[in-house]
Every structure is written in C-alpha cells, then in structure tokens.
Description:
This protein is of the alpha+beta class and 231 residues long. It contains 3 helices and 13 strands. It folds into 2 domains: 91 residues, Lipocalin (Beta Barrel), CATH 2.40.128.20; 93 residues, Rossmann fold.
Amino acid sequence: MKRLIILTLSLTMALSAFSQDIKxxxxxxxxxxxxPLVFNISEKDGGYSATMDSPKQGAKGIPMSxxxxxxxxxTITYTNAGIEYEGVWQNDSIVGTFKQNGMxxxxxxxxxxxxxxxxxxxxxxxxxxxxxSENVKFENKQAGITLxxxxxxxxxxxxxxxxxxxxxxxxxxxxEELVGHxxxxxxxxxxxxxxxxxxxxxDRGVAESGGNYSTATLDDFVQMQQRxxxx
Length: 231
C-alpha cells in the first residue's frame, strides 16, 4: 500500500509538471494603466527566454533580461526599464504582480487576449484644444531613421519660446505614457496654453518612430537630441 501511494504521488507530480507548459504567448492588462501587455515565452539553452509587447505604446519584441520558471513560479525581469514580473501558475493561467520603479500592480496572464477596464484621467486635456496641434516628422540622418511627434503652438503671436520634451529611461511614446498617465500630454497642454510651443516625440522604435529601441546605445540617444529640421 505504501509503495502504491508513493507511485500515485509520483505520477501526479509528473503529470502536473507536464501540464505546466509555460511556452507560448501570454496576455495581460495593467488595469490601473489601461495598458495591455503581451509576453512571448520560448525555450532557450535548457531554460527560457521572453520578449514583451506593449501594443498600445507601439512597442514590440522587447527582449527580457531574465526568465525563470520553477515550482510553478514565473519570474520575468527587464533590467533596463526596472521591470519585474512575478506570478504563480494556476490552471493554465498566471496570477501575479508587475513591478516597475518601486510601484506594484496586479497583472494576471492568460492564453487569450483581455480587454482593459477604462480608467478616467481628469487631468488629461480634452479636444478641442485652444491652440494648434500638428503631427510632425524629423529625420535622424546619421541613424537613417525618421522620428515622429506632436508640435503644439499658441494660436496668436510669433517667435514663441520652444520646449522639447525628452522621455526618461525605457521605450516610451510622445506622451511619456506610463501606467495610464500621460505626463508629456499634460505638460505640453499647460505650456502651450501659456505661450510656449512644445515638441514631444515617440522614442525610436516606439509608436510611429522608426528604429529599434532595444539595440540602440547611449551614443544613439545622444545623437537623437542633435538639432534637426522638422517637416
């Protein structure tokens, strides 16, 4: 009887391990940010690797720094952006938390796409704006890529002072969108209402800007700040 119990337990553990196939595409939504995220996990050198997509931010195939799956616990880290995801396997879904720069949010992953729960941000400006706003593109000739952004201009006057908003670490769009907040949209609105023209733009490889953020070096980002003409 004792041998039968041990054999049954061994078979149960083996079947459980076999059923926990972490490979494939996993979908989740940071509801606090109204931000869908996608992790693509594959086997590599006896372990795992992963890329992350942020469709709403126009970012795709961002290589993660480290992936570990052991004892039903999944950990994914992306050192460059201070991101860490920790989750536990539960019936072919993963229940966990998403951490970035000291902030923690619930993030559950499943094999099927999820719809975000809309979040109202009263600080975001609403159309119509009392100033001119136009989409622009400018070229980084040395890198051979074109960057895209938004230029806002007061409706009256000329020779305005100009502010160029440059995002912090990690791939971000022209609004510096993070966890549902759009700091650059709010800043540009305030500045332009007060007589200052503002240019904000998508990082390379994000949204409408060309290039590849994940392979860019510090020198590449410095070159992006050099003076260019806007078309």
